[in-house]
Amino acid sequence: MIKLTMFRGILLFLGVSLFLGCGKDSAGNFEEDPEANDETREETEPEKITVDENKTFVHPGLLHTGEDLDRVKDRVDAGEEPWISGWNKLTANSHSSSGYTPAPVEKLIRGGNSREEPEPDNYSRAFNDAAAAYQNALRWKISGDVAHAETAINILNAWAATCKELSGDSNVALAAGIYGYEFANAAELMRDYEGWVQEDFEAFKQWMLDVFYPVSHAFLETHWGTCKSHYWANWDLANLANVMAIGVLCDRADLYKYGMDYLMEGEGNGNIHNAINFIHPKSANDDTDLGQLQESGRDQGHTLLCVGLLGIICQSAYNQGEDLYAYDDNRILKAAEYAAKYNFANLDVPFEEYTRNYKDPWSVCGGVEVHTEVNASGKGGKRPIWELLYHHYVVKEGIPARYTTMAAQVHRVEGGGGDYGPNSGGYDQLGFGTLLYSRE
After folding, report:
1. Is residue 2 in some structural domain?
2. Burial class (CB in 10 A: 0-12, 13-18, 19+), 118
3. Closest C-alpha to 435, from 93, 97, 84
């Protein structure tokens, strides 16, 4: 059983009863008057993607399908570029070594040394081990070397047997969201390995349901007692990625459907229309309209994180038959073009004034901050997020997207966790997009 140590009084006041392990900060949109905008909404509201409550899942079917992995294996075996360069990038990463040793903890802490959790942070253990499990799983899938398969399941089994709870201040939601979706992706790759004892696989799935899912779900439902607009978009998106990934891994259509519905109808900033909160008409030099992201006025590091998380969610849904990539006239591509134009083409982008409502010391939602321009802080940060978007939209679908194309070129050859520095931001994405998503 997981203990909720953050916002206990607030959540009880709200009538929320949780059996979990804890929970940080965000942003928002004011809702327009629904009566005043009914006609506009009826004319412009995109068609919702409906998920069958009894949906069955494709396996493997998160970031990669069996067909995808077969294509990659064939190209690597043939020594073709850019796949062989991507493969060499993977095998050069120390996390992909079959000699990697995991370091699980009983209590995973993000937001430690705080009122809610006096013990120090240890979440680097999780992001390193999740990266290693995923990378070893990839090496097994592509090379067939069972030593890497054994390393991957050793990591996954060790965490499922050792880790009992998540804890920290509000930041625990980020631990649940990011490391949850990453562990789930590694396990999805390993689910058909004959050497993973069925009992151990079932125990791992139950661990994801018992430890990671409740924290993500509680965060999305309560936002730790703040208003829906308080937390920045990346918080919702990370936890949606986790809930949906666990849904696929555990064949839980209700979890997957919850995530999909939230992306289109949720009140928080994980709703795609809140995460990408304004569409600017394209100029003469643009290939498409530009989608301003909710965090664009905050900084570029978190803006790019949102782009990456949206890509992860889209790819996972696409592999299960739901095309979020195309949703609302390719809204996510428009966001990628906006972020890439500013960060990697080094061109100015338009900005629509954005007002954020948040919880302050005196009220649940009385704090106000106004963004009037794009924020250059963290501009041009490197994240392995562009190959996935480029190869889907430009190569597969044939949609011109000059700035996303440029960003993919700048980042090629993409690495993964361990290639982008030692801090948590370098492990937010599993990466290796040049190897895994290239189609040409």
Report:
1. no
2. exposed
3. 84
Domain holding 190, by residue range, is: 8-24+54-437
* pLDDT tens per residue, range 146-160: 999 999 999 999 999
Q: For tokens 């992706």, what's the residue?
A: 185
Domain with 227 in it: what CATH number? 1.50.10.100
Q: Which DSSP category does 78 fall into?
A: T
The answer to whether position 239 is within a domain reads yes
Q: Could you give the CA distance from residue 278 to residue 117 in angstroms, rounded to a whole number?
A: 38
CA distance 157 to 204: 7
| Bridge partner list, 231 | 26
- How many angstroms separate the CA atoms of 45 and 53, rounded? 23
Number of domains in the chain: 1
Q: CA–CA separation, 214 vs 110, rounded Å?
A: 16
Question: Could you give the CA distance from residue 29 to residue 213 in angstroms, rounded to a whole number?
Answer: 26
Residue 178 DSSP one-character state: I
Compute the distance between CA of residue 65 and CA of residue 116 in angstroms, rounded to an integer: 40
Tens digit of each residue's pLDDT (9 = 90 or more) over 239-292:
999 999 999 999 999 999 999 999 999 999 999 999 999 999 999 999 999 999
pLDDT computed for residue 342 by the predictor = 98
Residues 192, 198, 200, 206, Cα dihedral to 10°: 90
CA atoms within 13 Å, Cβ hemisphere of 279? 13
Answer whether residue 39 is part of any domain. no
Q: Is 399 exposed, middle or buried (0-12, 13-18, 19+ CB in 10 A)?
A: middle
Q: Residue for token digits 């390193």?
A: 128
* Per-residue confidence (pLDDT) for residue 182, from 0 to 100: 98
292 DSSP β-pair partners:
278
Report helix, strand or coil for 76: helix
CA angle in degrees (0–180, nearest 5) for 21-103-204:
60
In a domain, 78, yes or no: yes
Residue type, 14: L
The answer to whether the CB of 388 falls within 8 A of the CB of 315 is: yes
Residue 291 pairs in a beta bridge with 279
